[in-house]
Amino acid sequence: MVNTYGTIQFMAKPSIASTGVVVGPVEKESSFAEEFDEILPLENEKDETFERANTRFIEKACEVTIRKAHEQMENIDVFIGGDLINQLSPTNFAARQLSIPFLGVFSACASSMESVILGSLLLESGNARSVIAGASSHHPAVERQFRYPLEYGSQKPGTAQWTVTAAGYALLQKQAKNAPIITHATIGRVVDGGQTDPLHMGAAMAPAARDTIERHLTNTNSRMADYDVIMTGDLGKIGLSILKEMFQDEDSGVILQDAGAQFYGEKSFYNAGASGAGCSAAVFFSYVYNQLKNGVFNRVLLVATGALLSPLTFQQGETIPCIAHAIECRMEKRG
Amino acid sequence: MEQKQFDKIVDQQTPKTPLFVNMLKAFLVGGIICTIGQLITFFYIRFFPFTERTAANPTVATMVFIAMILTGTGLYKKISQIGGAGSAVPVTGFGNAVISASIEHKPEGYVLGIGGNMFKLAGSVIVFGVVSAFFVALIKTILVKLGVVSW
């Protein structure tokens, strides 16, 4: 079978056997707080750097994932993950501890779905039996790299988003029992909407999300109404309304949702909502995954969105190119 | 989708910055900070042998010290979210920039971390402050020489 236009159809039924989501203290306020596996009381322990804390969150999320599936760490064939810190050092360092063959990926906040797509391909090709895939972000570590020092007083506009502290990982196995199956995936294109404001990522990422969703629907011969939910990663409230406006589909109003927009509910402190690689990973692998398992959702499209900027490119006046990777999950009827 | 059409959507969906309210808040917050500074100046003139001209230095030092405590306790960024430029422009904003960068880079060591990054944000304030001070002094010198104004 030849796959075209970036959409992959999986025949081997790769499935999400278990998930693990570990979040920081701020995320206790999240609307999804009850769905997370663990909420740690501190962003970082005493004498621990933020980057080191990010590593610990990843290790913990992987352990939770594997424990929930009653698996052993040494039985995992490949570990695929990404984060937002330079050179992926938190994930690389976690891989040192986990000692599983490792692939580091980066597509900013879309890394979660890129990992899952690559993991599913490994299962599909028969080159792996168990893959652990996901992504993470750590608020203070990301903030200091991309923006200003944490305690620096800069006024955030209403379009700004709050990078979450969260690590979300999933164990992918072929035909796991009573688990959602990944049926399709669409690899994103790098799309540039000409946006330059790094504090308005929703507007920058919306065109990438639209491109991926549109291609996925076309390539799989589906309509929006066929899905229970099409959830984007971290467009935020404003980004989501831009995306809805771009679609002008009568179903887009209800079906299109955004993890970042819902993450902190209506609290105005977080402005337009949540963002970060951990945002999509945390929500997809907790709330959406549980809804699939409980049979509330039967068919969902998960679209993680990533802004591929760096502090350097922004200062050099470049526009913000973005990418969105999507996976389609289905829960087969039990019985 | 056309770029123009997309730009229009972004424009429509993005909430407008409440310029007037922001300016009012900046005025109030900046005004309060400056009033405190003025009170400290009076304090130094009244209780110490400082004149109106020389009291500026200890005042600035005291204001930066207060900014340091507010930054360390996480209060300064909360004030800044309300005050915007009103809390960034006074010398407390300069103190906040220096101190926040110092706290941030402590894990990278005292020399390369704190020493190397302390003026990461405040460096441009110093550079352009010195440059503009030079030009203002130059203009005034010329005006004095021409007899338009006196020192």
TrEMBL record, chain A:
Record-linked InterPro entries: SpoVAD, SpoVAD_sf, Thiolase-like
Organism field: Psychrobacillus vulpis
Name of the protein described by the UniProt record: Stage V sporulation protein AD
Molecular function terms from GO: acyltransferase activity
Gene3D superfamilies: Stage V sporulation protein AD (3.40.47.40)
Bilayer-crossing regions: none
UniProtKB/TrEMBL annotation, chain B:
Keyword annotations of the record: Membrane, Transmembrane, Transmembrane helix
Membrane-spanning intervals of the chain: 26-47, 59-76, 121-143
NCBIfam families documented for this protein: spore_V_AC
Protein name: Stage V sporulation protein AC
UniProt organism field: Psychrobacillus vulpis
Gene coding for it: spoVAC
